[in-house]
Every structure is written in C-alpha cells, then in structure tokens.
Amino acid sequence: MDYNMETLLPYIPPSEYDKVATDFLETYYPDALNKPQAIPIMDIVKDGMKLDLKFVCLSEEVDILGMTIFDDGLVEIYNPEDGLYETQFFKKKTVLIDPEAVKKTNIGCRNNTIAHEAVHWYKHRMYYKMQKYSLPKKAKYCKCNINDFPYMNEDESIMESQAVGIAPRILMPKKPFIEVAKAYDIKSVEDNWREISEIAQLFDVSKQSVRIRLQECDLL
Asked: How many CB atoms within 10 Å of residue 18?
C-alpha cells in the first residue's frame, strides 16, 4: 500500500479492502478469520486498539453517526436537554458515537459505525497527524455523516470511501462469510430473505450489509 508522501494519505484501491480488513483482524481478533461469528468490534476498539469509546449526541439533526478524534482539543457536540450546541474537551484516541443517529438507520448500524471509526484510526491517523503541522489551529477529527458532507475535500472523501468499504469487511471477513453463505445456498434476495436475515443475525449486521457482501463475494 502506497501513501501520498506530502499528506500521508493512504492509497487503498477497493481491490485491497479485503486484505486491509484481514490484516486488521489478524492484529486484533484473529479467531474471526477461522470461525464465522459476530465480531466483538466494541471490545476490539476499547481493549485492542485502546480507543476511548463514548456515546454522545453529535448534532441536532441526528445526522452525524460518529467521530474520531486524532488530537486533543475542543469539539462541538449537541446537548438535547438544553437544545443547544456546546464545546467539550476530548483527548486524542477518542471515538464518539451518536446513539440516536445509529438507531435512526438500521439494526446493524451501531457495529458498522464503530468499525468505520476504527478504520479511520487504523489507516488515517498519520494523515491527521500531518495536519497538526500543516494546519496547527484546526481541530483534528473526522465526522462521519449519514450522508456525505457537501463540503468534504478530496482527501476526506477518499478516506470516507475507504472506511465505508473496509468496515463491513471487518464485520464479515471474506473466508468465513463465504463459508456461511454457501452453506445456505443463497440464490436470490427474494427467495432467500429468511437465510439472509439469519446470516445478518450471525454476524450482527444489517440485512442490507449482507446483501451487499453477497454481491461483493460474487454469491448473488
């Protein structure tokens, strides 16, 4: 994997997303590569990666799923009791998840959002470390919206696409996922909705994520 040597932005083509997910699991939870199971992503983030995981409201519109903080500083969050935004100090290696935003989407969103933020720390922290020197007054964090932010720059858009692509591959690693899917003999979404639901329950993800993963693995 190559990096932009000026910004330390990693170049990760989609063809390498499964490899990055495998490397991640080999580091933090290798048992997942041998046995189909729900990935304890919250434990991995807290105990393996030593990130401080917090559940706090991030926006009045409930449209920000999560945030990864790469450097100590003040972050704007939303206080639903007062109906006001406020600034709060957070240390680097903090991951913020909005509990209402993840409930707003689907049942597997929380785990996917945590995995998504884990990818940002795993692969993008050096980029944000470089920003500390190039933009010293700018807070060092990334926000992940339910929809893409319209004001994302090109680097941020690339990193967001990488996290979107790699996170579900961490939660559904390729080899064990294919093993399970082939055992169910999936033919189509219409004919196998019950089997897809069971696979989603096994990996603790959404049915939509399973359908996408089936397509990625040429099983649908």
From this structure: 18
Task: Report the candidate in 144, 126, 117 with the shortest Cα–Cα distance to residue 49.
Answer: 117
Supply the pLDDT for residue 13.
Answer: 95
Kindly write down the DSSP assignment for every residue of 7-32, as one continuous string: T--EE--GGGHHHHHHHHHHHH-GGG
Closest CA to 17 of 173, 128, 155, 127: 173
Of 81, 208, 63, 91, the C-alpha closest to 150 is: 63
Q: Which residues contact 17 (CB under 8 A, 6 or more apart)?
A: 162, 165, 166, 169
CB 164 within 8 Å of CB 198: no
Residue 9 structure tokens = 């932005």
**pLDDT value for 85:** 94
- 136-158: average pLDDT: 74
**By the 8 A CB rule, do 10 and 127 touch?**
yes
Handedness of CA 56, 62, 68, 73 (dihedral sign): negative
pTM listed for this prediction: 0.92
- Residue whose C-alpha is closest to residue 64's, from 73, 75, 51, 72: 75
